[in-house]
């Protein structure tokens, strides 16, 4: 059993209005100088696979076929053994 | 300048219907045995701070005061120097 931890982020060239809104909210809170806020998605899933290589391949398939939009988003993931 | 990478996840005890929907979609795709899909948020932000300890404190403030719902969500973060 493996645990995949996937992060999906908007590509740098894509505007992120949600991030801008959060940045503006932080600016009103007197916390300090924070900028370039980018919002993304985080997904965890458990995989029954024979080995880590198989788990990585399955995670990549899930990302490319379902979770990430290849035009607008990048994804990264880590796979750990449970 | 520091980069904070924040993940916000629903607590284990909270149902995650979006994760269940993704799990069901994966089930129809013939990728293999994947379960316990949990959807969360991923946020990156840049911080101007004197040192890493200050950057960590600011990140924690942003999480507790703005980004995470303390009743339903947990957050984790890493801070790296840019």
How would you describe this structure to a colleague?
Two copies of one chain form a homodimer. Chain A is an alpha+beta fold. The first copy, chain A, has two helices and three strands; from the N terminus they run E-H-E-H-E. Chain A has a single domain, classed as 2-Layer Sandwich (Mth169, Chain: A), CATH 3.30.1280.10. The model of chain A has no long low-confidence stretch (mean pLDDT 95). At the A-B interface, strand 1, helix 1, strand 2 and helix 2 of A face strand 1, helix 1, strand 2 and helix 2 of B. Strand 2 of chain A pairs antiparallel with strand 2 of chain B.
Keywords:
homodimer, 3 strands, alpha+beta, elongated, 82 residues, Mth169, Chain: A
Helix/strand-derived category of chain A reads alpha+beta
Strand content of chain A: 35-45%
Helix content of chain A: 25-40%
Global geometry of chain A: elongated
**Oligomeric state of the chains?**
homodimer
CATH class descriptor of chain A:
Alpha Beta
Please sum up the structure shown.
With 82 residues, chain A is of the alpha+beta class.
Secondary structure elements and pairings:
2 copies of one chain form a homodimer.
Chain A: E1 2-10, H1 17-27, E2 33-48, H2 52-67, E3 73-81
Antiparallel strand pairs in A: 1-2, 1-3
């Amino acid at each position: 059993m493996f645990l995949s931890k996937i992060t999906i982020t908007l590509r740098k060239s894509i505007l992120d209005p949600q991030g801008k809104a959060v940045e503006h909210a932080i600016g009103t809170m007197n916390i300090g100088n924070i900028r370039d806020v980018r919002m993304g998605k985080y997904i965890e899933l458990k995989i029954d696979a024979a080995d880590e290589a198989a788990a990585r391949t399955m995670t990549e398939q899930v990302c490319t076929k379902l979770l990430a939009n290849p035009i607008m988003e990048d994804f990264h993931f880590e796979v750990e053994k449970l």
